Amino acid sequence: EVQLVETGGGLVQAGGSLTLSCTVFGIRIEDYVVGWFRQVAGKEREGVSCLRNSDHRKFYENSVKGRFTIASNVAQNTVTLQMNSLKPEDTAVYYCALQRGSWLICNPGEMHYWGRGALVTVSS
């Protein structure tokens, strides 16, 4: 059974930093695309950042470029999202996801497995 478990959410003031971590069980991430998505109540889930482990190519949504960094550790089967200069509009539930493929398309419909989510709240 494939499971993705996120940790690291919480409350932070605007301008602060948080690191989200995702541990993947039941499948090796080294051949696949992994990513982080976020969702605000009443809105669609959106892709924040994705990484293709085969060549380490990365995608970042425009609003997080220069502030967020995605990384993976294939030995530990983990994916992290370092979030700096956080803004109130970054407040959302953040989900880790994995695609059993190599298409670097950071779209929720392209992902096959999901974590349960971690709440990130940025206060102004």
What does this structure look like?
- The chain has 124 residues and is mainly β.
- 0% of the residues lie in helices and 51% in strands.
- It has no helices and 11 strands.
- It has strands at 3-7, 10-13, 18-25, 33-39, 46-52, 57-60, 68-73, 78-83, 92-99, 113-114, 118-123.
- Strands 2, 4, 5, 6, 9, 10 and 11 form a 7-stranded mixed beta sheet that branches.
- A hairpin with a 4-residue loop joins β5 and β6 (57-60).
- It is globular and about 40 Å long.
- The termini are far apart.
The gist of it:
With 124 residues, the protein is mainly β. The chain is 0% helix and 51% strand.
Average predicted local confidence, pLDDT: 97
C-alpha-based Rg, rounded:
13 Å
Which percent band covers the strand fraction?
over 45%
Distance between the termini: 40 Å
Outline type: globular
Determine the structural class based on helices, strands and strand pairing: mainly beta
Helix run count: 0
- Unreliable parts: none
Total number of beta strands: 11
Order of helices and strands: EEEEEEEEEEE
Provide the helix percentage. Answer: under 10%
Largest sheet, in brief, is: 7 strands, mixed
What is the topological layout?
Layout lengths: L2 E5 L2 E4 L4 E8 L7 E7 L6 E7 L4 E4 L7 E6 L4 E6 L8 E8 L13 E2 L3 E6 L1
Parallel strand pairs: 2-11
Antiparallel strand pairs: 1-3, 3-8, 4-5, 4-9, 5-6, 7-8, 9-10, 9-11
Attribute tags:
124 residues; mainly beta; 7-stranded mixed sheet; 4-stranded antiparallel sheet; 11 strands; 0% helix; globular
